[in-house]
Amino acid sequence: MIEVKDLVKTYGALAAVDRVTFSVPQGAILGLLGPNGAGKTTTMRILTTSLSPSAGKAVVAGFDVVDQPEEVRKRIGYLPEIPPIYGDMTVINYLKFVSDIKEVPQDKKANRIGEVLEMLSLEDMSRRLIGHLSLGYRQRVGLAQALLHDPEVLILDEPTRGLDPKQILEIRKLIKSLSGKRTIILSTHILPEVSSTCDDVVIIDRGRVVAADTVENLSQRLSGGKTLEVEVKGPAAEVEKALEKTEGVSALKSLGNGSRGVCRFEVTTDGSNDAREALFQCIVRNKWVLYQLTPLGMSLEDVFLKLTTKETAA
Amino acid sequence: MNSRKLMALVNKELIHYFSSFMGYVVLFAFFVISGYFYYLIMVESHQASMQPVFQTMVFILLFITPAITMRLWSEEEKSGTAELLKTSPLTVWEIVIGKYLGVCAFFLVTLLPTFVYLALIIANGSPDYPPLVANYLGYILAAMAFFAIGLLASTLTENQIISAIIAFAMLLMLWVIGAAGDSVQGPMGDFLKYLSVFQHTGDFFSGVIDLSHVFYFASVIFLGLFFSVKILESKRT
Fold first, then answer.
1. pLDDT in the model for residue A313
2. The A76-79 sheet, strands edge to edge
3. Could you say which of B16, B20, B80 has the minimum Cβ distance to residue A84?
4. Disulfide engineering: B84 pairs with which of A84, A86, A200, A309, CB 3.0-4.6 Å?
5. Which residues in chain B are closer than 8 Å to A93, comparing Cβ atoms?
6. Averaged pLDDT score across all residues of chain B
7. What is the pLDDT of residue A238?
8. Nearest residue of chain A to residue B7 (CA atoms)
9. How large is the ipTM?
10. How much of chain A is helix, strand and coil, in % rounded to 5?
């Protein structure tokens, strides 16, 4: 549905986007993740034909963004970084204007505006001036604008920006419900947003793709061997010695001793077999008490930091 | 060109003008100034003609145009709404013409009081109608040429003040270039004089419609719109 190949955008000597390649299958939600200034917005502006690329190719909904921008524009809904709203228009007048320029059929116009208002819980605000609305409502009017002509492809630049936690959950749910029929790209620097909303994730840093995979694969691939957190009530030194010798354990790191004789360790296993059973037996044999034995996946946050800081060091 | 999209754009511009303080200041200025000159001229000259009023108004328009046109594109760029227009199924020509017709529609509102003056002239005197048509046409064409230049200035910057200054400088140029033409001899002087706006309004205000003057204004309008389109297109890169 969306194919991006070796996309480059340079400003003088600076490459804002540097050979970015990814693709989004129909109906999927792709999260574009990266620190500020990584090139997320530039990539999105190229995909929405607002900016032309310096090199490379991008195809959206079957049409090339450079050769057939008019066809692309008919099929996309775009929420830019700053919602493109007119403060001196009422919500309803604004949506009427947008449906006219986005070719919503005249006879379906009123219906469609009603649907979108309901979808974003904006019915009570429809007669208010947009300039008088709070940040959260403005963002929702911006989203309404992107959804109005029922586009095949949605490109959302930080869709949950400015919303309160309850609204964030609602909007994420809405975005998820929109996928399937539609293909969605959203950018964010809020990590839980990607894991809770997206199927695939592309991490970019300084204009380059540093990782592209499904959300689960990415966190698994990068965590290497499995890591466990173990919490035991017992003499710390003896526990450490015993756990270290347990079969399947390749490394052990003390996470400090808690109160009441509880000590915590981070145990890295060699990955050949599940070390949890051996660890449990070892603790029981020594008549200590096991408080906790938790597998630690690498969170997306760790992955993100690992990838983007590695890039800095290189 | 899609008429529904153009209408939507024109309507949007009118909403902006009639919800902004600046819009009303401009309307007020037009009404007061044109009314005052009408009164003075009628009392002094007792002519059954709109010619002195329009002759003065076109001069005042030179100063008011930047205030009307400065926001046309600059504001869209500044507030981020340019992204909506650029990524909607609109051609750059549709955007530019929609905005241009929007400001022209606003201008029509400023003409309303002149119809009252016209009615008074017709009721109390016996004017010649063809010269009146020429007077209106000259005034409207000059205004439309000024707006095309103002729109062009607005596409150059996202700062409204700078946009107004550029528009004013360009309009001033079209005025003083005539004076420059007077002091230069030969074909160069003639050419400079030809470029001056007031060289082309005179005949209209004397009641004559000369197609060569219509052609001059049509060219200024076309060039203003054409370069606005080219500048907006170049902003994609």
1. 43
2. A76-79, A153-157, A183-188, A29-33, A200-205, A208-214
3. B80
4. A84
5. 15
6. 91
7. 86
8. A100
9. 0.90
10. 40, 30, 30
Supply the pLDDT for residue A127: 94
pLDDT reported for residue A146: 96
Average pLDDT over residues A168-189: 89
Residues in B touching A45 (Cβ below 8 Å): 83
Vertex A91: Cα angle to A85 and A93 (nearest 5): 95
Q: Count how many pairs of residues, chain A against chain B, have C-beta atoms within 8 Å.
A: 77
Report residue B77 CA to chain centroid gap. Answer: 22
Report the chain B residue with the minimal C-alpha distance to residue A105: B4
By the CB < 8 Å criterion, does A73 face chain B?
Answer: yes
The mean pLDDT value for B186-202 works out to: 88
Q: Taken in order A170, A110, A99, A60, is the CA torsion positive or negative?
A: positive
CA distances, B221 to each of A14, B60, B177, B204, B227 (Å): 38, 19, 18, 17, 10
- The chain B residues in contact with chain A (CB within 8 A) are 4-5, 7-9, 11-12, 15-16, 19-20, 79-91, 236-237
Domains of chain A listed by start with CATH number: 2-221 (3.40.50.300), 225-297 (3.30.70.260)
Cα A88 from Cα B14, distance rounded (Å): 11
